[in-house]
Amino acid sequence: MANIRKNRSRKSGLPPGTLVHIGEQKIDVPKITLIQYDEQDFLETEDLSLEQCAGKAGGFGGISWINIDGIHDIALMEKAGELFGVHSLTLEDILNTEQRPKAEAYEHYLFFSLKMLSLNGNGSNLLSEQVSLFLGERLVITFQERPGDVFDPLRERIRQGKGRLRKSKADYLAYSLLDALVDSYFGILERLGEEMEDLEELVLRYPAKQTVTRIHNLKRRILVLRRAVWPLRELVSSFEKSESPLLEHSTRLFLRDVYDHTVQIIDGVEVSREIISGLMDLYLSSLSNRTNEVMKVLTIVATIFIPLTFIAGVYGMNFKYMPELAWKWGYPAIWLVMVAAALGMLWYFRRKKWL
Amino acid sequence: MANIRKNRSRKSGLPPGTLVHIGEQKIDVPKITLIQYDEQDFLETEDLSLEQCAGKAGGFGGISWINIDGIHDIALMEKAGELFGVHSLTLEDILNTEQRPKAEAYEHYLFFSLKMLSLNGNGSNLLSEQVSLFLGERLVITFQERPGDVFDPLRERIRQGKGRLRKSKADYLAYSLLDALVDSYFGILERLGEEMEDLEELVLRYPAKQTVTRIHNLKRRILVLRRAVWPLRELVSSFEKSESPLLEHSTRLFLRDVYDHTVQIIDGVEVSREIISGLMDLYLSSLSNRTNEVMKVLTIVATIFIPLTFIAGVYGMNFKYMPELAWKWGYPAIWLVMVAAALGMLWYFRRKKWL
Amino acid sequence: MANIRKNRSRKSGLPPGTLVHIGEQKIDVPKITLIQYDEQDFLETEDLSLEQCAGKAGGFGGISWINIDGIHDIALMEKAGELFGVHSLTLEDILNTEQRPKAEAYEHYLFFSLKMLSLNGNGSNLLSEQVSLFLGERLVITFQERPGDVFDPLRERIRQGKGRLRKSKADYLAYSLLDALVDSYFGILERLGEEMEDLEELVLRYPAKQTVTRIHNLKRRILVLRRAVWPLRELVSSFEKSESPLLEHSTRLFLRDVYDHTVQIIDGVEVSREIISGLMDLYLSSLSNRTNEVMKVLTIVATIFIPLTFIAGVYGMNFKYMPELAWKWGYPAIWLVMVAAALGMLWYFRRKKWL
Amino acid sequence: MANIRKNRSRKSGLPPGTLVHIGEQKIDVPKITLIQYDEQDFLETEDLSLEQCAGKAGGFGGISWINIDGIHDIALMEKAGELFGVHSLTLEDILNTEQRPKAEAYEHYLFFSLKMLSLNGNGSNLLSEQVSLFLGERLVITFQERPGDVFDPLRERIRQGKGRLRKSKADYLAYSLLDALVDSYFGILERLGEEMEDLEELVLRYPAKQTVTRIHNLKRRILVLRRAVWPLRELVSSFEKSESPLLEHSTRLFLRDVYDHTVQIIDGVEVSREIISGLMDLYLSSLSNRTNEVMKVLTIVATIFIPLTFIAGVYGMNFKYMPELAWKWGYPAIWLVMVAAALGMLWYFRRKKWL
Amino acid sequence: MANIRKNRSRKSGLPPGTLVHIGEQKIDVPKITLIQYDEQDFLETEDLSLEQCAGKAGGFGGISWINIDGIHDIALMEKAGELFGVHSLTLEDILNTEQRPKAEAYEHYLFFSLKMLSLNGNGSNLLSEQVSLFLGERLVITFQERPGDVFDPLRERIRQGKGRLRKSKADYLAYSLLDALVDSYFGILERLGEEMEDLEELVLRYPAKQTVTRIHNLKRRILVLRRAVWPLRELVSSFEKSESPLLEHSTRLFLRDVYDHTVQIIDGVEVSREIISGLMDLYLSSLSNRTNEVMKVLTIVATIFIPLTFIAGVYGMNFKYMPELAWKWGYPAIWLVMVAAALGMLWYFRRKKWL
User: Fold this and answer.
1) Which of A190, C131, C183, E136 has its CA 20 to 30 A from that of A113?
2) Predicted TM-score of the model (pTM)
3) Which of B257, B292, B318 comes nearest A316 by C-beta?
4) Domain termination residue (choose one: A251, A266, A285)
């Protein structure tokens, strides 16, 4: 699959509400999954069409959760808009994968747009996937860019019917999804924290050029995380305080909890930023230290041997009348002078604490 | 055309409301274009006089959009003020191209002043043009410094009559213009972002003097972008919350969308600033690294050869009584000593990880 | 005991309110202590079961303070939840030792989560232990991670029955616990301040590589302290302003005092951060100074002797026709030239203030 | 005139409201000018006594503007206080030339204190003069430290009777004075901006020691400008929102304009500060670059010639048994070796991109 | 007197309201002075006991000002609490000399805690003394750590009976004390400002190691000043807005003035901080400049003489077949070559602007 990234700027000049997919297409054919449950029943269906989903959801008294992996299919999105009454601006937000996390309350539904973050294999890259969440009455729709998400434990809980989930309304499902996403940030923050500690040791032990590249890369990933997390605080807070009838009182209490987690992550991110910038300073000081050390070695060797070489040079001159050359003890004497000069130098360096 | 830039300071001491063009004159003769449309009809006229425009706009039941390219003609501006009832302070704002983006509500109209940004050919310069927007009842007037703008796709949409635009009131046209301008910033942010990535690689690979100049230049352009974008947030927000009867409820929803885009751009700009300042640190550390490397080469060569030269110097002395000189194996022995000293040094440098 | 640290990320995907202990298990078997008192009586019991505690607390007209050391036992926590009516989200907060300090008001109780900080033996590490505080009517429960706390003087005051404590309600006990914790931060701030002063002297006297490591370590500890203290301000303030009937008016006055202490500690932490970042600059300048000094020694020695060596080299050449070599006073003359050159150099360096 | 600067600290311990002139006396004898005008008449009188001014102002139905150059004469100030009903705290503010710009509303008058800034001849110094403005009914009094101000164009406008000024009330005159002052800041910002651009080029081309002094000096001037401008925002805003009956509605609209200009200047100042701090970084990097270059030259020359000198030294030894010395092609061979070594070094440096 | 400094941490675990003196004891026996005055009478008594003071103050219709120098005597403090109705928390604040400046309104009195700052002899240390102020009806009590304060001019004013002071209520005395304290900060700011200017010159002329120590020390003193001044703004503002009946309307106007002074000092402190951090940059760049200069001298001398020494070395070799040695003009020719090489080098350095 070629790089089919579409930049935000492609939208310039198009009428607002025009549906354009912004970002990279990450899956070939969108995949739709429907989970339906109430306190007694549970039903999971795959590979339905959107119309089938809408029909099934409409004819069911419990909660329906439609998950759509792959959002690049404009026609599909337009159909979703029609079937579930989604405003065109909401659809535009779903398609724009560079959207800032945000929450918006419409008359008949609440809408959230968030980032699902994951580190690649060796942790050197922080992948960001947009997850949009539509919360209607008895209906939750999630839009993802590609298959694979952090919601599997949640699905398992629905299947097994343990806990509050099966007994609660759709808002509790929405909350659980939000909670799962926010919880997943903790894992990322922890891995970045571990890498930071590794780098800290490296910087102090041996400041190589790659170290600085890694510090810079880590800083970038923390900036990505930060950009995903900061708007969350406002988002969760506005969700919690929303007067929408879709939201039960008990769920608000749980949202307060998510809010606390968000603040905790933001705290962690900010501390990480501060430590990272300290690491850069540490690296520079470490480097200066090394340069200083190299300089000292050069200076010690050069200041000891350059004068000695000069003395040797003097007695290598070919003047006819150089009385010292004929002295019997001239040669040993000059050795004595040279050794004394060298020792003097060494004593001086020791006093200067260079040795 | 000579440089006829007029600075802001030229205005000092003039009575407020005195019309003085501040900035560079970018076109010889102002050009006026009139677009008129309603749901059925569409009319585009060029090269009219302002009086003609005013007459046509007054006698038409739909929306009229007058675009004026070139704002240096004071007489024309005064005429516009009379014909359309524009306050002298508004005219002053239109003429002052160093005006900060702002919105102001007057009794009969709303006024916006924004920056239209564009990168020059090779992207090394960010050009800023002031666009002023007057929104009256059934009338929108845009003032630009020179021909050429980001509104062509919008004109095309009016011509083709697709979408909401032809069915909506003048406030929707004003919103669409605002939206087009804000969308154009995304393109600029993307190009600057690409340049930033190039620079990042350059800095890590080979930190040349030009690199630092380019970083500085990029920083300046980001500051220009920032200065254009920051006031936008407040501007859009005050527009959205304005109680002017000129503003329909449905348009407010769209303005919320523009607001989100503005915040997204501001976010991007702030992240860019942070990365840029990180680049500068990276550059400095890269430079220190190179100095350190140069130092090491010098130190290695000098510390190996200076002592050897000293030894050679000793046996170049002309003392009469130097027993070693007469030894049969003196010369090979001295070579042995010298090779051993050199190897010892090399071993020391390897242990210090300088090699 | 092996390292059984459990990270926050382990919780991802679990239903909210699921009790999972996050952090390191620091004690084998939880230890429960009950202190009961009113103006006349005082009773201290150890090693009870939770049920016994609940029974005793229920049947007593005075204040009961239950202290639990060790929170990793989920079953125990759940029992506590049942017996004292603690909400599952509160239990989750108690178990999550990476929780940000916070206060929450429930219908029948107030809940606080704080950090108890202590420096290890040589002060190089700042240990953080979570202390959770449940304030009900006539009942205070404290949850700690391990035995040993800063509350011993408080216990002594209860035992001796001096002061207000025995005459006041449970809210005053809660306040006293809070006050003891906040007061303990002063001691830590003072020890860090002393270390900072030591480092300051070290940096100015002799900037070694370990110094920078110590500065970095100190900075980290201050960041830990800061993270524990900042949320406290809001916490105490919300406690003070809480409308809970559990809180007497007179206690609010005392809380105002705790609030002032919190602000004082925050002030101290911020000043410390500023001084620390100044220390880093000082270290770098100190290092540059040393490099400069090393350079000067090298330059002085090299610039004096390299030209002299050259002169000696010239008269070591073996040309047949070198008239100077045959001069009677050639050798002393060349010495004169060399001494003059060396003195000239020295004079130049003195003028440059290098000597 | 000797330096008779009086510091703020001289006031310590004096009762509040004690009139003490703080600052440098900049004129020998205060000079009083009276301008009186209404729509028809215009009268300009110089060298009056304050009593005469008060009499003339009282007996005139139009606007009177009294300008006093020189504020060090305490007796005069006290008389002004009596004649025009100025509160002693206001007089104290007028006399204290180190006063922060501020606005205050008293029952019968409004009071402003501002800074009039001017660059000296070569622009290397930013002079600050305090201008105080008293706005009563039909009366404006301005207090300046010395003759010469930015109000001459305004005086000309009054004389010529063009524009709104002659038709408006005293509040419009006060606004015009404020506007003239704020406009004068633009000129200063522009000159500083030009100097900044010069410095930018200098830094990139040749980083001399004077450059850094100039950067530092520029920074100081920008700090002075900033200190004068920041409080202005609040000042103008409070003026605009003041409920004083002295203020007409139409003037408020114009004040809004001044407010915009103030914000624009603050924006400019903040951008300048950011660029200045970037310049300092640029300077340091430029300096590091130069050091790196000097190091390279030294390293190249030294690493090429030191080994060659060693080789020459070896064959300058006087051992009896040195077979090479007797070889016929020994000398040319050794030249070959030396040239090869030098070329090898050069190739190595080229590969390292040092050449 | 031995160092009997008592740290804040000593209080940990003591019941709140326990009176413990925190800080250094600075006087042996507390000294109590009573000044009583009304419009007609004035009475100054020294060395009274507290009971006598209370009696005298109670039986006098005018204003009584009790000044206590020395606050380490707990018994005395407790007696003061009883006699004048001071809350135990207020007493605790008086005794805690590390208290942050604060104001608190109790039912029957207002309480302030401030810092009196003074520079020691050579200005290298900023001493901080806590001054607490109790304002009751017709009674002001000041608590100081040691004799000597900035209130002498105020006492003189009371004695002489000039100005408002003798005619006003106790709140005006409290205001005057506050004003005197705030005014004394100006003197300190000025002395620090002068030192800053000295340092600025030093840094640019000759960056020695002591300079950086002095910059650091100056920074510390500014941080102390800042810590004393920042809370003052809030303090004065809350005093001014306090609804206490102890406060006359006219005094509020004067407090507004103190507020302005406070803001002015804060401004000055912030500008100083910025300039100080600029000084550090300046120092570092100055140092880099010097290193660069040292490097240049070394490089010039070494690159000129090392090649020449090599040439001399070549003709010092003892090969049998070296035709040049036998040439008649060999020696002068080689001199020519060497002079040419040296001149070439010099030309190169000049072109590089190193000379």
Assistant:
1) A190
2) 0.83
3) B318
4) A285
